[in-house]
Write a structure and sequence with these properties.
heterotrimer; A alpha/beta (about 290); B alpha/beta (about 120); C alpha+beta (about 130); A: about 290 residues; Transcription Regulator spoIIAA; five-stranded mixed sheet; 12 helices; about 65% helix; about 10% strand; elongated; C: about 130 residues; Heat Shock Protein 90; five-stranded antiparallel sheet; HATPase_dom (chain C); ATP-binding (chain C); ATP-binding protein (chain C); HATPase_C_sf (chain C); ATP binding (chain C)
Amino acid sequence: MNTNLRNIAIENSDTIVQMWLEKIDSLKGEEFRFSTSDELFENTNREFVNVIFTSIKQQGSLIEVITFSEKLITLGWPLSYITDGLQLFRRVTIDYILSNSDQVDTNFFSAVLTSVDKWVEPIIHQLINEYTGSWEHILSIQRIALQELSAPLIPVTDGITIMPLIGTIDTERAKQIMENLLDGVIKHNSEVVLIDITGVPVVDTMVAHHIIQAAEAVRLIGSNCILVGIRPEIAQTIVNLGIDLTNLPTKSSLKKGFITALEMTNRKVINLKPMEDGIEEMINSIQGE
Amino acid sequence: MSIPILKLYNYLLISIQTEIDDKTAIQFQEDLLDKIHKTGATGVVIDLTSVDIIDSFIAKVLGDVITMSDLMGAKVVLTGIQPAVAMTLIDLGIHLQNVATALDLEQGLIKLYQELRV
Amino acid sequence: MTPQSCVKIREEWDIVSARQLGREMAKKLRFSTVDQARITTAVSELARNIYLYAEEGQICFEVLETADHKGLSVSATDTGPGITDISQVMQDGFTTSGGLGAGLPGVKRLMDEFDIQSEVGQGTQINTVKWIR
């Protein structure tokens, strides 16, 4: 019975393909039409339906399916095209077989449904697997990319290091930032670390908690933390949320923080040529004229 | 097993090199206070560079011995706490709030010198 | 590496052996240095609780492997007096031994999963898991 149905489908593949191609055209969505030429769309449709038939002929071989899905993923076609296309194929094939048979009772009907399902299901599975596989791959690459730009540690002068934080901080990232920070403090032998949160969009209780913990840990290993880059709106949220930052020295800008850090390490910035001297010289030169 | 305590002028230097069990920790507490009493030391540096675990008990003993030394007139600085140890202490909720720390033995001595001078 | 290994806790020195085994297993599973320290510290806290309150019990380690995760399970079992009020011992700063009271809530923060069951007069069972990041 199954082989029989398979033969019917294969023998009449031309008609089925024709029916399918007519209907698939209506599936071509709006956003899709812009990025794809009609020619490419038609060719791919033809290839798609051929892949389905090859799989049926070879009794469920999926080699062609894998190659085809890889091609679709590279082209960036949506998964919905594939699932819709296969559903359509299922419907068209069932319609065709039923309308061309004389004997249509419940048994025959369910036999047709079962065998067509058997042809289509493995292909759907394979394609969805390929797609999710590619998504997961992209996701993991992006995660690594994010980790890489996570939290650089910049030693600016002896004993002073700056860590600019950029982007949203979640627990996972916070832990990593803390590890980077502590290892960096040891590596650069920093007496003072400036944590710059200018690039952190939101500071909520959780982010503040992580920053406080990082500062505490820095103190335990024998260094000091200054939190810099506190924007007005951040100061407001910190106070409104009732977050206690009293144990953590804070400064509004990196510049001010850096000056404090210099003081803490017994240094200061001096102008090599004092400004007043310059003005005096200028006045003298005018008087000389 | 006991932890050696070295004297350098007015300071006592301790480097903890072994896995500390509870008995050793308590023993160390007694030894240190004894030594402070005998020598009249004004500063103590405890170096923890080779310590790879501090649990809540050892943290408590350390915190206690620092407060006790303070009572006897000796200022204690902890040095060389490893990043991993610092992070577990934070996770445990132990902040050693009033304890002086420094990156290494050298900076610990500088810190003592500066604080005791003023 | 055996899938499961246990250390009996009867005397003080057993706390050290338990955490040494914990560290060794964490190292073999290639946990990061920080997570090794976290696991070792958690083991130390659990073992000390057994020694202090139950007098006898054991710490067991088990390597866990799921489809996409690998981890280490650390469980502490004792037949001691049990805990009357679990929510109380899970509070930061609560202590009956004069310690820092960081023990159990600390262990919960150090590990990824934490589960405690206790019956007065029967004993206490604590299961914790740390997954490899």
